[in-house]
Design brief:
This protein is of the alpha/beta class. The protein contains 14 helices and twelve strands. It has two domains: about 150 residues, Glycogen Phosphorylase B (Rossmann fold, 3-Layer(aba) Sandwich); about 190 residues, Rossmann fold, CATH 3.40.50. β2, α2 and β3 form a beta-alpha-beta unit. The model has no long low-confidence stretch (mean pLDDT about 95).
Length: about 350
């Protein structure tokens, strides 16, 4: 079909978890179309994460948050008109991302992750409806869509390659290693503790994490490394501050990397966790958690309003979830938070204990 180097564009502006879920699709695209140049369009806040993917040849970053204003959408649309591609993939499926796809000059425009509400199908060809993929893992949504696109429309054999690749430059490795080692002791054993971000209904609560940390210290002599980052004064930030205050009151020893690591440094910490005696990661459904398991650090993911079928650890991990009659509601403003309240510290501790005993 293509007698020259193929120009591919993938647009997935945000967020961290969504980008991680798309990485095996990127790997598969490059594995299938070896003679290709792949350009990735992403919000400037997440450029560092995309830079770690060795399959991406070019990154074009822009201010996706600014597209809340119609005038900025128009400006972005006009600036994107200069780009020409053979194939464009809308990997987000939102109206704003699809409007940018509309700006590209391309023979083929496909969507790989349909949204339940936004009419992205007006500007890209989606081979599955949201309903058909509703209970399919986010990783597999992209893969299944690509398989059908290549079979039905491109008439090219598709070679699936499920890998999450993070590649660091040698100078970055040395720099990150030195920085992290300065904080940690080689004589102690650690785990990464992420109190959570995103919707309030997805967060387990600082008191639960604190009680869990106390049990892990008492029974396994494990020290938590608190990770994450949130805007000052936000609800997430307040959760962390409460955790730190209460931890000091009960004399819980911990290390804090909260707001101290760049996105690249955090990925490095997860990927090379063994260098620092880090045994596992625990957190909720959020970008940091998805980076952890995709880096092959064993991950315990606490789930509430989102479905494990869709966002569970795809590799290297397990989840804790209460399948209530209302689950998964995907209600970010839920007031009862029953699904999270029913997850008890003892249950999570038992799962971690079983994991540690198997090592």
């Amino acid at each position: 079909m293509f007698q020259r180097k193929i120009k591919i564009a993938c647009i997935l502006p945000s967020r961290i978890g969504d980008i991680v879920f798309a990485f095996p699709a990127i790997r598969s695209l490059k594995n299938t179309l070896k003679n290709s140049k792949l350009t990735f369009f992403v919000d400037k806040r997440y450029k560092d994460l995309v830079e770690l993917n060795p399959d991406i040849d070019e990154i074009i970053d822009f201010d996706f948050k600014s597209l809340k204003k119609p005038i900025n959408i128009l400006k972005a649309y006009l600036s994107f008109r200069k780009y020409k591609f053979d194939i464009v993939f809308d990997m987000q499926g939102y109206l704003k991302s699809s409007l940018l796809v509309l700006a590209f000059k391309a023979k083929y425009k496909f969507g790989t992750s349909p949204s339940p509400k936004e009419p992205a199908y007006l500007f890209s060809k989606f081979v599955y409806s949201y309903k058909e993929l509703e209970n399919v893992h986010r990783v597999d949504r992209h893969i299944k869509s690509l398989e059908k696109i290549f079979e039905k429309y491109l008439k090219i054999p598709f070679y699936k390659d499920i890998k999450f690749l993070y590649s660091f430059k040698e100078n970055e490795k040395k720099e990150f290693l030195k920085k992290i080692k300065n904080y940690l002791s080689s004589k102690k054993n650690y785990y990464l503790l992420f109190l959570g971000g995103g919707w309030k209904s997805r967060r387990w609560g600082y008191q639960n994490y604190l009680n869990l940390a106390l049990k892990l210290k008492q029974n396994f002599n494990l020290t938590p490394i608190v990770v994450g980052g949130a805007a000052s004064g936000s609800p997430e930030d307040e959760e962390y501050e409460l955790f730190f205050q209460e931890a000091k009151k009960v004399n819980l020893e911990y290390k804090s990397f909260y707001k101290k690591l760049s996105l690249k440094e955090f990925v490095y910490l997860c990927k090379y966790a063994k260098k620092f005696n880090i045994k596992f990661f625990i957190g909720n459904d959020a970008g940091a958690t998805h980076i952890s398991w995709s880096s092959s650090l064993y991950t315990f993911e606490i789930l509430g309003p989102t479905s494990p079928n869709v966002v569970r650890p795809y590799i290297s991990g397990e989840y804790i979830y209460k399948n209530l009659p209302c689950s998964p509601c995907r209600n970010r403003d839920c007031q009862s938070l029953e699904c999270m309240k029913k997850i008890k510290v003892e249950e999570v501790f038992d799962k971690i204990s079983s994991f540690l005993a198997s090592k």
